[in-house]
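Review box. Two proteins, two foldings.
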Amino acid sequence: MTSHEIDYHIYGEEMQYVEIELDPQEAVIAEAGSFMMMDNGIKMDTIFGDGSNQDKGVLGKLFSAGKRLLTGESLFMTAFLNDEMGKKKVSFASPYPGKIIPIDLTEFGGKFVCQKDAFLCAAKGVTVGIEFSKKLGRGLFGGEGFIMQRLEGDGMAFVHAGGTMARKTLAPGEVMKVDTGCVVGFTKDMTYDIEFVGGIKNTVFGGEGLFFATLRGPGTVYVQSLPFSRLAGRVLAAAPRGGGKDKGEGSLLGGLGNILDGDNSF
């Protein structure tokens, strides 16, 4: 194997974290901000790119890191190396409520395509790149589903799905249509495109967006019920305007409550 072979355990239900057990000299790479805790003796290091091209010279490192800029990610990732004798553990947490999905790349032919914000961590040696779109429609209308990340190698990778996760296996030629933001990832043999919803009423009054992703089997696709953009949109929509309290909350009782709690501004 070119990737480090790691053991893991996923804890929790709605706010999960993954605990990874590292043998001596084993390492795991992770996106910035996903680290939760680790045992003493693990060496933490910032690396250029994903660490898979460390032996390919300066140009290899620059190409690996440069691809990440196209997905809006940092040029750097963090590597956690067990630099001592004995097993050590390091944990990474979900960014918001949902499920952590373990992806054994050897079971998927060495490649898995996922949303650019879904990747959490992986065994060192796994390549984290981008999946280029070859069709104009995806580039113009794909939205969140336009730029996808490509995970390649023979190790373990972990991605995050918001809300409840659904795993669907499609037969050859079978088609499924999904909201572009709800696609977490899919296996390499699936074809993926963006399709116009159609119909003037759907376009103007539907409220579900103008486009959806069309996935065609064979392969496996992971779908999330709560993409981060949808969660953030609901939070922003419910936030009080002007930074103050929402005067409409609770209708008439809302104003009465403001008086009782000492807030006399209306």
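Next protein.
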Amino acid sequence: MSAQLPLITGLVLAIAIMAAPASADALKDEIAPTGKLRVAIAISPAGGAFWCTRTESGYAGVPVDLGRAMATELGVPVEYVVHQNSGQITDAASKGTWDVTFLPKDPERETRMTFGPIYEVADATYIVKPGSTVTNFASLDQPGIKVAAVNNTTTMRGAIAHLKQAKVTGHQTYDEIFNLLKNGEVDAFALSRDQLNAMAKKIPGTRVLDETFKQTVTAVAVPLNHPLSAAFATKFMMEATSNGTLRKAYDNNGLKETPIRTQTK
């Protein structure tokens, strides 16, 4: 038996050496079939843990930094696939136009893509137009009140479920709703508190309500039936959380004071 041990050990080592490149190639074939890691992002003026912004040299945002780090680990170039909102990203999940994304998770979206670890938990509320007499949810939820939300998003679905009398209407872009609110054409806008606090600084007279109607959670995601991609994305985000990559992405994008709030489910 002892004479056979070196031979067995050598065979195991040879098999492992041959298998490693094949496994790496299989992962790249699945997660980066075009030779690039295509990262789906959504654009708004404020940026944040989910939203990204346009810059003179390209794009900025937590998903931009995380996508770049993920591509580096894979050894492939990164390409950003721009959308106007998370609903558009969700609708494209089955079309093969992106490979990985970072977006709010909800039960409806879990039927259309595979999510990894949650890296942000955000409070959703409303901002009211300049001069509004609305001060809380009770005074907001009245007949004739018009509430805007970004179309086909988890926040929009949450606002529709929350408000029983006010009318919630979806719009395609953050910019469109920003202008409607600024001009007083809608009474309120439903979004995450951090985003709305940034908006309030740009539109004098607006007010972000103190109450919270929903907590939204943001996570890494890949299209359905991509098991190697899902496993890699999960491992990447767990390491990014522990090795400081995620914290650095927050700090680089104006979120130095924002704590990272993770969930395992």
